[in-house]
Amino acid sequence: MGGPAWLTGIFAAASLAVAVYCAGRLIAARRWRRPTELDTDGAHVVMGVAMAGMLVSGLRTLPIAIWEVVFAAGAAWFGYRMLQARRGARPSPWRSSHPLPHLVECAAMVFMFLILPASAAVEGTARGMTMTAAEARFSFLTLPLAVFLFGYVVWLGDRVTLHAPALATAAGGTRPPIGSGPALVATRSYLAPRCAVICKITMGITMGYMLILML
Amino acid sequence: MSESLAVGRAAAPPAADGAAALDPRRKLQLALGVIWVLDGILQYQPSMFTKSFPGMLAESAQGNPAVIAGPITWSANLIDHHVVMLNAVFATIQLALGLGIAWRPTVRLALAASIAWSLAVWWLGEGFGGILAGTASPVSGAPGPVVFYAILAVLLWPADRDPGAPSVAGRAVGRRPAQAVWLVLWGSLAAFALLPAARAPGAISDMISDGASGAPAWLAWIDTHAASALSRHGLAASIVLAALLALVAVGVYLPGPAVRAAVVLAVVLAVALWLAQGMGELFTGMATDPESGPLLALLALSFWPAVPAKEA
Fold first, then answer.
1. What residues of A are in contact with residue B104 (Cβ under 8 Å)?
2. Reduced to 3 DSSP states, what percent helix, strand and coil does chain B have, rounded to the nearest 5?
3. Per residue in B192-219, pLDDT tens?
4. Which ranges of chain A have pLDDT less than 50?
5. How far is A150 from chain B (nearest CA, A)?
6. What is the DSSP string of A139-201?
7. CA separation (Å) from A82 to A72, A103, B99, B219?
8. CA dihedral defined by B84, B149, B287, B206, rounded to 10 degrees?
9. Which is the most buried residue in A90, A181, B84, B215, by most CB within 10 A?
10. What ipTM was predicted for this assembly?
């Protein structure tokens, strides 16, 4: 990693904390039958682990190719959810109500893994996320991706104080959730909505930092 | 929700998803927040934790009067001795300012803090943009991008001093003060474009060439070609730029449609200046902010005359 080790360590710890917390949310949501965005939380679990591995070479778990497939699948899912939303499908409290940022996050992960130097992946060196000249031709993508994520972070920050009632309305209404199994019927208030927003903000800032390092 | 959160002309109606709709002022505040967050993360770049950061700050003392240069040199030396700790603090402050603007309960506090922070950095980090050194040029980012943060914080302040004003800026500080700010700002940019250092043969060309270094190929191509085209027409380019900036400056006193044209011209000039600045050299790993272009554009948008709301 290019930055100071303690700083990348902090960002890696933050992304791992989000991963662990979101895994906990998935378990708690099922046990207490409290709605949460299953796809977002699931994405944050794998994203947190993958990002920690990108930031600190000692935390690498899976080969890059597997992560690429995972996040490409994630991007496809959130893209599908976007299409569904455009076609007027009813929102579900169990799925992301705003799939576009998560689509961008997954695409950014694929992008970063694609241009991550193979040498760093193989050797586990500290070179980390610095691009080679050949990869730099894609650098025009990093700035818009980072700015989009910062915009998402700020937008979420604006909604923190508004988020709970908004989601409570969505979760507590009479509309049946789309595609949720019989065990996952939304009858209670949304699970810790502000914590969910803070997780998204943390992931957005961390991923934005990683992208800025690739400029 | 407190009055400070009533960022709109009237209480914002609930949006379809239950969240409050964003009025133009709040959108501009959030855009300012995004730039602050970007600044904070740029400050976390590896090169900022090295001696090159205080070295960059010390350079801004050059050409300034001793009373201005002394504190700049002192602070650069201080940062040089504690660069890792102080840079981490600086980056975190900027990140906190961005998030503070985003979070409604702290928007006033964050905007007020951003004014104090910007003015301090304008002096100690940018040497007042070279105004006193005679090297200021709008092409190089004069009067220093960070001062625009302070101006924007004032113009986007969540208060309605003049609720009937057509623009966001006018509502916050009053119509005439906002017009005066606009006139002084764009008028001074026009004056800077005509300073000897800015109108010298090859001056604009050299400044644009500097922006090309370290830039991606497409941006370097734009800047290299622009620099080449202007290399023999430095004085003429300065005069044309000054004339356009002066036109923008007086445009805010014209009738409604002309004000819109002036704002559009201001945004176009801001984009052109940003490209000339190599997009703030964001791609070099040494940028601490996106330079003046995006801030000028944001500032111009705060003067966009809205269509008057119809009476219910």
1. 158, 161
2. 70, 0, 30
3. 999 988 888 888 999 998 888 888 888 8
4. 1, 119, 121-128, 134, 165-186
5. 6
6. GGGHHHHHHHHHHHHHHHHHHHHHHHHHHHHHHHSSSPPTT--TT----S--S-HHHHHHHHH
7. 15, 9, 27, 33
8. -140
9. B215
10. 0.89
